[in-house]
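$ fold --in a.seq
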Amino acid sequence: MTVRSLFTTRFYEGRIEDAALLAEVEAASLALSSDDMAGRRWSKDHGYRGYTSYASLDDLPIRDPAFADLKRVLDRHVAAFARECAFDLGGRRLKLDSLWVNVLKPGGTHSGHIHPHSAVSGTVYIVVPPGSGALKLEDPRLPMLMAAPGRTADAAEDLRPFVYAEPSVGSVFLWESWLRHEVMPNQAKSDRISVSFNYRA
């Protein structure tokens, strides 16, 4: 008997070990959360518990050297992930399309979503207090399982309908942008800071 796993979903877990860079990005993120009034308004109007620059600033790597340095590091991680995904890019590299800051207050969360018009999406974690929430990844086949029975508690990770990726300071998570995911509630007593991004072909 042969049982094969088909249609594998790749998920990349890397690290940024440069403490000085992480500290610079943290300081820049906190400055934005204080100074970016448009982002603060958007966050309040859309029920985002904390601050995000998602809808207000689209030039962070040009605006601030800390994000330019971060982009250069992320470019290398994304290139490695693209190779693992066997993307046929004709000798080119994926390009950064957007990058934004998230300062998630206690109780904050972000419901399930995908990132249209991108090839690879990801998050790098800058400040991660204990209990500040995992990234929940959803099996893309879930809407089509219909009458399928549930899985046993000891089922292999690739058979589960949801997988939880626990970040730590410096974690870099990457996935293909069609993969539905959500941010679990921040149950810590302080803010979690992350930077999310999209790359396109």
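$ fold --in b.seq
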Amino acid sequence: MVKNYNCDVFICPEKHTTVFDFLYKYQKLKHKKYHAVIAHIGVVDFSPRPASQIEGILNLKKNKIENCFDKEFFYQVNDIKIYPEQYMNEDTTSLLPTELINKVAEEFNKIDDLIWITCNPVDLNWRGNYKRDRPVNINVVNDKSIVMKGLLSDRVRVIDFTKFSMEEVHKYTCDNIHMSPDGMKLIENELKKIV
């Protein structure tokens, strides 16, 4: 895409790239008139992870979260909801609780010409090139993608991977989460249909 289009490409300088990073960056650039704004984002926000990791990630993103939303939203995100499942002998939770996805969707709905690429289901019986098993509740990622998709207006164009079969998960991802070369080609082809 970068070779054939005039693109601004951004990668978060921090370890975790969240919807908050995306929205914060977009706020700084929304004066530009883009033909399309492409966001392949959500897995970090939606995925279950050890609860001990959440506070550090949210505190690192505090300024961005409050800038995009407000202090109350930051307080609500910090009121973490613990899942019954554990991972690595720890309680699990997600950065973005289901009940706040609507607030993110509202911000997505304000972006002109947004293309959002969803997350996909996960095959718990396959690791791909990931060194350990994923949390048993990892498919929360896909569940939350489906919730988000349902909250987006018709103006937001969606490249929807939420209905991948397990065969497609193996083909288009290298580890259930990150796209394989075939997956990157799939995204490219889907984007070409839109832009």
